Amino acid sequence: MTTDVTAPERGVRENLPALLSLGIAACLAVTTEMLPVGLLPAIGDAFGVADSTMGLLVTVFATMVAVFAVPLTIATTRLRRKPLILATVGAYLVSNLLIATAPTFAFVAGGRVLGGIAHALFFSVCIGYVPRLVERGQVGRGLAVVAGGSTAGFVLGVPLSTTLGAAVGWRNAFGLLAVLAVVTGVLIVRFLPAVGGAPAGRRIETPGARRGLSIVVTSNMLTFIGQYTVYTYISVVLLTAGADESWIGPLLLLCGLCGLLGLACAGRTIDPRPAATVLTVLGLLAAAIVGVGLSHQWLVVLVIVVALWNGVFGGVPSIFQSVAVRAFPDAPEIAGAWINATSNVGIAVGAVLGGAVISSSSATSYLACIGAGFVVLGLAVALIGRRAFGG
After folding, report:
1. Membrane topology type, per the record (predicted)?
2. What's the confidence (pLDDT) of residue 5?
3. Model pLDDT for residues 312-324, shown as the tens digit of each residue
4. Do residues 289 and 375 lie in contact, with contact meaning Cβ atoms separated by under 8 Å?
5. Residue 93 to residues 25, 125, 162, 187: CA-CA distances in angstroms?
């Protein structure tokens, strides 16, 4: 029988190796999820599939997460956490190998389905792990360390794999991810402490916890819809503006580096001023997406605006993870499951909305209008339900 482990009276520094191992796993997870964003044109050309259809590779992955995150988390809530993390890493390994060797587009889609199911459980367990390692007052900082791995998936994983895909073929990019999955598994075995699952009969005792969590995850979903309406097709946007295909990887790397800066800023303010951080970041995010729509005819200006936009978004995942755990402290893994599910509902819906307009002559402007509109809705929910965000 497993037992829950109460958070030790230790901080982020004492648990840094464990947090970094989770961060590296998060890097693998996000890179696995988002790698097709940089390789949509190359994979589409290989199988004769249109850009709008290729966006379904993002949608099907996100749909698996949205459907299975909460049920899988509830079904495994009493199991030990470390073996679950290792199981998801193993599934990422198989998923990426399947795509790297796929003879047809159907096999690529199948690999994405498997990866999405793994992802449905991974982030729920990962987010719930942090409160078990560090004291409550440092959970935000701990999640920021782990989210640094997620952002690194954008900073290094996606851009470098995209560059590799352009240089030696997209299949090798997915093969590289399979190798990273093996390395990640070794690090988790070595550095991540084993913790138990939740005890039987656990109850939600914090007043207003369910209502607060529902407000947080609604805002999170709307924000992700807005972000991924545009970001899913960022390669197409840049190419349409005049960027050479060989520039896409380096440009995504620049965006990711800006995202790390945004994450660092958010990590410094999310614990002492959670509500103010959320409202400020969402306001800036909406403005940056509008800027993408206004600048798409001038490549240099567009690159600068896209870099700023991704810099702002860099802190968004850790911000919502942190406030969700605060709102639902009695079951952090369930909070993580709902953040994971609603994030991927947002990614899936955003990809579909973007795909509906990507072929139009004014695609970038339409994408930006839709994306900014959904972020503003997320901001409105956060403003109205400010108490749920610690305000």
Report:
1. Multi-pass membrane protein
2. 44
3. 998 898 899 889 9
4. yes
5. 12, 18, 18, 15
**Cβ neighbours of residue 331 closer than 8 Å, sequence gap 6 or more:** 128, 198, 202, 204
Distance (Å, whole) CA 93 – CA 207: 41
Between CA 119 and CA 97 the distance in angstroms is 16
Specify if 323 maps to a domain: yes
In a domain, 4, yes or no: no
> What is the DSSP secondary-structure string of 113-170?
HHHHHHHHHHHHHHHHHHHHHS-GGGHHHHHHHHHHHHHHIIIIIHHHHHHHHHHH-H
Range of the domain at 213: 16-198+206-389
Decide if 152 contacts 100 (C-beta within 8 A).
no
Domain for residue 79, yes or no?
yes
The enclosing domain of 121 has a CATH number of 1.20.1250.20
- Does residue 151 form part of some domain? yes
Domain count, the chain: 1
The reply to whether the predicted model has a pTM over 0.85 is no
